[in-house]
Amino acid sequence: MANPARGEVALAVADTEYTLKFSTNAICELEDRLDKGLNLIVANMERLTTVRALLWAGLRAKHPDVTITQAGEIIDRIGMAQATEVIGKALTAAFPPNEADAKNG
After folding, report:
1. Can you give the pTM of this predicted structure?
2. CA 93, CA 78: separation in Å to the nearest integer?
3. FRET label pair with 74: which of 16, 36, 88, 102, CA 20 to 30 Å apart?
4. Where along the chain do its domains lie?
């Protein structure tokens, strides 16, 4: 079960529940796979390759056996809109605004 306080977001796919979490190790694996920093990766989410890699990386912390191919199959099942939505939620959960930003924003 996903714990939002720990930066986790739930993703239900048919009868399987996944948890996305962009841990430090997951982000490092993502950056290594795409040979780009996280800011560039997120800025270029128009490529399906990028969205698939983001979903795969987000699954790594809680589901280390999920392959990049399986991440693509998950996208096929839930659709691109839901995939990008859950990735966005997980990234926001991983990098919540700090109190100073919230007061100034």
Report:
1. 0.88
2. 21
3. 36
4. 4-92
